[in-house]
Amino acid sequence: MNRILVVDDDRDIVAALEIYLTTSGYQVCKAYNGREALEVLRDNAVDLVLMDVMMPQMDGIAATKKIRETSNVPILFLTAKSEDVDMINGLNVGADDYITKPFKPMEVLARVKSHLRRYTQLGGQVKEQDNLLTVGPICLDDGAKRVTVDGEPVSLTPLEYSILRLLMKNAGQVFSTGQIYEQVWNDPVLGSENTVAVHIRHLREKIEIDPAHPRYLKVVWGLGYKMEK
C-alpha cells in the first residue's frame, strides 16, 4: 500500500485529503509545516508528498529543497491560483507538479495515481530485454532505467527521465509543451506549459555541456522541443 505525506497548515484541508486518499486505499501521514514534514520523512518510507506552499516555521519551497538533497520522491505542490510565482519557484527547486486550490477530489487522486505509477516504474526491477537509446553522448537504458552522458551516470527525476525517453524515442520529431505534458503526465494540459519548460531546463543542465546553447535538446521556437538525431 502506497503511503502519501500530506503537508498543509490548514488542518481542514489535511483532513479532507486524508479522507479522499484513505478511501482510495492509500496510507496517509500528516504534517502541518515543512519542519514536521522533514521529521515524518526521516522516520517513514513515503511514496509521494502533497505539499502546501505557504506554511509557518518552514514553507513548502524550503522543505522541498531539503527533501531533494536526499530523495527523488514525487512532490506535488498545493497552490492557490494567485501563487503563480510560488508555483514556478517550487518547480525550480524540485517539485514535480502542482494542483491549484480549490481542488476536486478526482483531480487529486488522478495526479497522485499518475505520479506514483511513474515513480514505481522507475524504481522497479530491470526488464529482461534492455532497450538502449543513444543520441550523441547521451545513452538511455530503459531496461535498467539508467542515463549516462559520455559514460558518466546522470541522476534524473522520474519526470525528467520520462521527458528524455519520449524525446529520444522520437528523435527529430517536434513535440509541443502540451503534447509533452499530456504524454508524460498523462493529464490534460490545462495551462501547465510552464511546468514542462522548467523540467526541460533542469534536464538540459544535466545532459548538455553548455545548457544555454544546447546541442541535443533543442527548442523549436513557437512549436516546442525536439531531440536532435
Beta-strand content: 15-25%
Assigned CATH superfamily of the largest domain:
Response regulator
Tally of domains: 2
Overall 3D form? globular
Per CATH, what is the topology of the largest domain? Rossmann fold
Arithmetic mean of pLDDT: 88
Q: Give the end-to-end Cα distance, rounded to a whole number of Å.
A: 41 Å
Number of discrete helical segments: 8
Main beta sheet strand tally, sense and closure: 5 strands, parallel
The CATH architecture of the largest domain can be named as 3-Layer(aba) Sandwich
Identify the CATH class of the largest domain: Alpha Beta
Show unreliable segments: 124-130
* Strand-pairing-aware structural class: alpha/beta
H/E topology pattern: EHEHEHEHEHEEEEHHHEE
Number of strands: 11
Give the helices and strands, then pairings.
Elements: E1 3-7, H1 11-23, E2 27-31, H2 34-43, E3 48-52, H3 60-68, E4 75-80, H4 84-93, E5 97-101, H5 105-123, E6 132-135, E7 138-141, E8 146-149, E9 152-154, H6 158-169, H7 177-184, H8 193-207, E10 217-220, E11 224-227
Parallel strand pairs: 1-2, 1-3, 3-4, 4-5
Antiparallel strand pairs: 6-7, 7-8, 8-9, 10-11
